Amino acid sequence: MLFAAGMGIGLMFWGVAEPMAYFSGWGGTPLGVEAWTPEAASLAMAATVYHWGLHAWAIYAVVALSLAFFCYNKGMPLTIRSVFYPLLGERCWGWMGHTIDILAVLATIFGLATSLGLGAAQAASGLHFLFGVSSGLDTQIAVVIGVTSVAIVSVVRGLDGGVKILSNTNMALALFLLIFVIVMGPTLAIFKGMLSTSVDYLSNIVSLSVWTDRQDSEWMHGWTVFYWAWWISWSPFVGMFIARISRGRTVREFMIAVLLVPTLVTIVWMSSFGISAIEQAQNGIGGLASGIDTLTASLATFQMLENLPFNQITTGLGILLVMMFFVTSSDSGSLVIDSITAGGKLDAPVPQRIFWAVMEGSIAGALIFGGGKEALNALQAGAIATGLPFTVVLLFMCFCLYRGLSEDRRSLSIQPLKS
């Protein structure tokens, strides 16, 4: 559930598109290396993991750990305002708390709309690739409507009856597709790449994190700023979702599960898809040999799969995966927004869940329609516009979590020893 809700659509969309973008120079190259060179290939993988690795999951972990601590250890409602009790006291139940929850809802709904829009664009491109169906706005909006309808059914069934079943199915299909790409793609290069990508990621993590005196300011502002805003806009949703499924875990178990395991899985996934794509581009195979741009980014995964055996089957599987991740993100997001707007209740009325599922789909459709041919830019702008204001909330949340954990530790240290 953690993966399906947190990054499923993104991994499908950007698993090929992002490494290829950095390698071919679409939107600049990380650290200013020359495009289409071996150095660009190595840094493309490192920069991709940089955006999807520890930094991203650390943002989720702050929100999730804060919510879980104040809800399960302190007995407060599972809502964003509860985290600010050490700072605001009883005022967190007044207008200040309302403002915090409203910011969280807005950030979540636009962050989700960005992902749903990306998923719709990729699903439409896959349908065009496989069946010749138009991949234009009409098809993308039709995908949004269809998947939102399925998400409504899932959200009515709840966490165990809907989200959990879909998430487990998603991960099984994703694992099958991953193994297929590893076995049928450049297997040796992929395994070597997993190690080299890890090394390149760790050796470049500081230089990629510095915000001043950089030669790649275009790339940093176009990619890194967007990703941080996207993760921040997703943090109330994914953080609360992780908190809901983490009751009974120790803080150590929580940090390992939320930080280290997803980063390792991301390295495996991105290395498998990204290296397969870059190998094809370097050898002049298929459509990726000419690079990608705004109009072809949603097609990149299918262009890579086209040059592997059984491409029609794997393309169909890819479309199915995107749509199922689409459903999982929508229904889990609806449950989270529903919980926030219901004051932390986990059993809010079903019509309220349906309302939020419809709202998410409507906003995604509006961004796609309003963006036209530049829909990808419109989706990114929506995430940035709502994600950056929530950064202030996250900073204060770090302080409140520190205060809460410190007080907990002091209360434990002054307890008398048992005889």
Percent strand equals under 5%
Q: What order do the helices and strands follow?
A: HHHHHHHHHHHHHH
Number of distinct beta strands: 0
Please give the radius of gyration in angstroms.
21 Å
How many domains comprise the coordinates?
A: 1
**Measured distance between first and last alpha carbons:** 45 Å
Count of helices?
14
Spans with pLDDT under 50 lasting ≥5 residues? none
CATH secondary-structure class: Mainly Alpha
Sheet/helix structural class: mainly alpha
Main pleated-sheet profile: none
Average pLDDT score = 85
CATH architecture: Up-down Bundle
The best one-word shape is: globular
Helical residue percent? Answer: over 70%
CATH domain topology: Amino acid/polyamine transporter I
InterPro entries: BCCT_CS, BCCT_transptr
Subcellular location: Cell membrane
Protein name: Choline/carnitine/betaine transport family protein
Transmembrane segments: 52-72, 93-121, 141-159, 171-191, 225-243, 255-278, 308-327, 354-372, 378-402
